[in-house]
Amino acid sequence: MYGYLWLYKKPLRSYIYKRIISSIIVFFGVILFVFTLLFFAPKDTAENVLGKQATAEQKEAFNEQYHLNDSYSSRLKDNVKGLLTFNLGTSFEGEEQISTSIAQRFPITLKLTALAIILVVIIGIPVGVLAALRQQTLWDYGVMFAAIVGISMPGFWQGLILSMEFSIKQNIVPARYSPSDYLSIILPLIVLSTVSIATVARVTRATIVKIMDEQYIVSAQALGLAQQKIFFKYITRNALLPIVSIVLLQSGIMLGGTAVAEKLFKIDGIGNYMITKHLIPDVPAIMGGVVYIAFIVILINLLVDILFAWLNPHMHSDSKEVSR
């Protein structure tokens, strides 16, 4: 006679809890790291804002007004509180409310990133698929070479070359972004998405090639199943998770890398805002921009890890069957 003893272990739930806790630790680690760099960086914020003609009394009054003479721990506590309550106070440059400025600029950056993600999906994935299906052909070699070039190309240099050629010389697209001119978004999107398109294409190709070499695919081909059925029913299904994961990870990378495109093409997004504030440096403004972007990137990575775990059959082994 056989009996069954169910031992609940909940590995998926335990994994998710651990990842959430580690993500929270990373988030506060980013806050601590960025603030420490800004706090100890050699600077004279008062002089940068007031000018070299400012007197010692004016500088001292400025430092007192913005608590720049406070201790490390006191300023860190104030910054953490401001970040968590979305109340970052006023900018060092005047009465500008930092939280309001960030809230106005974040949608612009998110829109730019979202359009870049769409571009990555509609170009990177099909190109990678075709390269995998046409292995060791001129197309395959050309795609892989272009991907290497795309990954190796610095975004700022690429943006300058594109601006000089297509904006200044050819006058095809504007060199400066304008919300009312849809053509002005083309060059920023190219600069922002090039590396990610190349990365997604390479990962897509490598994933599909690996799956095509699996024994069950070889067996399906030997049985005479239609190539379209093999591709859509078996290859695509198994390749979907790695491809979706790399797209999500690249989304976070692109969001964190918008500063170059925004600065180069005069886009009033959060990346351009942070670069401008870094010249002072306006610590609360920089902290807000960096930390809120980091939060979204950390959240994306957390979702990718949870997605992987959820689709892993071993993580759903809530119980063991014991016989006697």
UniProtKB/TrEMBL annotation:
Residues 106-308 form the ABC transmembrane type-1 domain. The chain crosses the membrane at residues 20-41, 114-134, 141-162, 182-203, 239-265, 285-311. Its main location: membrane. One of its GO terms (biological process) is transmembrane transport. It is a multi-pass membrane protein. It is found in: Cell membrane. This is ABC transporter permease. It comes from Kurthia sibirica.
